[in-house]
Known about the structure:
By secondary structure, this protein is α/β, with parallel strands linked by helices. The chain is built from 11 helices and 10 strands.
Amino acid sequence: MKQIGVFDSGVGGLTVVRALKRRVPHESILFLGDTARLPYGTKSGATVTRYTQRNVDFLAQQGVKAIVIACNTASALALDRISPPVPLWGVVEPGAERAATLAKRSVGVLGTESTVLSQAYQRAILRRRPELEVVAQACPLFVPLVEEGWLDDPVTRQVAQRYVRPLVEHGVDTVVLGCTHYPLLKPVLRELFGDDVELVDSAEVAAEAVADSLPAVPDVEDEPRASDRFVVTDATERFERLAHRILEGNWGTLEHIDL
Length: 259
Ligand code: DGL
């Protein structure tokens, strides 16, 4: 059985690994975190596309049967511009699909600066439901706050309040958490948006989409299941700390590679 390759700019992509582990527990994962080049969320389309192509090529060389781009920024900026050697999924289309299904009138999109500027979510939602209103909000401070481990901290709450306020004032009824790190802030965001607003976790819906499509992906059934691998381009104590928290200790050792 071949592995599923998952890549992200950093540790946040493990939210997608966690979701995949729940949906397809029998599958084995090769995770690549391009930690040496994080953040992607402030970089240009050309640069993110170059990094994405390199990550995809690396995973394909390792013999994965399919690739999930867990990074919202890479999905938004690069998915349409790269040539995938194996079946490839991003997180934007599944997130947009779910938002378009749930929304009544107005959708809020939270993401990195580059994701919001690319308008990828806005376009993908409006393609499905042109009558909807889509308001996007870049939240550049969320990634460093999550990486600091301040998931439920007064500072994070204050920052979140500022990002969330315009969307609440706008009356959004559905909000896409359009970044790998934001599912970790769900409790704070739930509190600020209230129970009537639907929160779309892009990691969860992407894992669902992958689980639905996997049966169509060619595999080698008689090969034994490999164990999960976690590879990063810059190994740090911070990565290990957060990985431990996200995967609740359920992961192996970290390998360092130069890409
Ligand atoms: N993985 C990125 C995303 O989902 C967030 C971190 C970064 O900026 O690289 O957009």
